[in-house]
Specification:
Elements (H helix, E strand, L loop, with lengths): L6 H4 L6 H37 L6 H36 L19 E6 L12 H8 L2 E2 H8 L5 E2 L2 H19 L3 E3 L4 E3 H7 L10 E3 L13 E3 L3 H6 L5 E3 L6 E10 L18 E11 L4 H18 L4 E5 L11 E9 L4 E12 L1 H6 L1 E3 L8 E2 L1 E9 H11 L7 E2 L13 E2 L2
Parallel strand pairs: 4-9, 8-14
Antiparallel strand pairs: 1-11, 2-3, 5-7, 6-7, 9-10, 10-16, 11-12, 12-13, 13-16, 14-15, 17-18
Amino acid sequence: MLDPTRMDDVLRRGGDVATVVGSWKTLDERRRKLQGELDTLRQQRNAANEKMAKLDKKSAEFAAALVEMKAIAARIKEGEPQLTALETQVSDLLLAIPNAPHDSVPVGASEADNTVLHTWGQKPTFTFAPRPHDELGRALGILDFESGAKISGARFTVLRGAASRLTRGLVNYMLDLHGKHGYDEVWPPAVVRRASLRGTGQLPKFEADLFKLDIPVGPDHVADNDLFLSPTAEVQVTNLYADHIFEPGELPKRFTAYSPCFRAEAGAGGKDMRGLIRQHQFDKVELVKLVEPEHSYAELEALRQDAENVLQGLGLHYRVVTLCSGDLGFAAAKTYDLEVWLPGQDAYREISSCSNFESFQARRAAIRYRTEAGAKPRPVHTLNGSGVAIGRTIVAIIEQYQQADGSVIVPAALRPYVGGLERIGG
């Protein structure tokens, strides 16, 4: 939840944010006015009670005071449900307001205004016209889109043979790499509660993009079956510490986690639809940090580098872009996107987003820390990044390492994780 003192900062995002903020301000002014009126009425009621206690109950003065006190009580009774309704509306609107951009975020309206921070490696060169991954994968018999659609519907794929081994190998490669860099590994459940999704900012704004489960789970099932398939391990790992207060010296916390991810991708039709680029189910290794605010931007730079290390280890050419204010995700204060080069599409495609959410998620999930023993708790800063998306890494390997005969070279760093496999096909 956005810190209400930063409402003016959030307007830098542009778009329709000003309308939402304006509605919130109007309702909040009404709420504060009504709150003040009720506080005054309660003080008057207390004063009337004290006055009546000193009067003769049979006197005319007592009778008049009683009439006055009942009138005050009636106005309070009428106003309290109005205040409750306003508080709910204000809270709901506040949950719909995105985070405020950090001062270093470039101003812009869309992804066209993002700035390139740097590139790594060189675009691979070919003596032939490079082919897209879906065409190569079909020819190699490792990407079975037809079976995925037959079993589960559109945007599901069966990975066969080497593609399955690559998936398993990439998960282990990434987890091992991040473990060496100080991240604690966790293996979370894939089902999450509504409160967890609200805590990290997926709800209420992005409910249409989620897969909701409408079945009870045993005798302790969640009320109203309010369970969802997780869209990212960021949700589970961040919420490990929901409603928690860290004592001095316990931060930072750094975690890495593999999880299957599920997204309905509502409204995404026609965008990056080819092959494995945008699937309803995909695999990802996630990086999550919980840190003290004064260290969060240094931690963001380190997080970005940890995600880059994965691509560098695999020898994949990519670039890093800083998202502008108009392209920031809902909960992020600053984001770097890692975009890998796909020669078969002649384009860069996002493979990781590394974000600092500052206190936005921590306020929603009540994740706090003390600066010293007994001090008032403050919200931590949370960060996360893909470390990285498995399916898109397979796409990049197939397209960047493709050979003229249709075979694909396996990156050297990955071979120990796939039984020494050096080449797919050929």
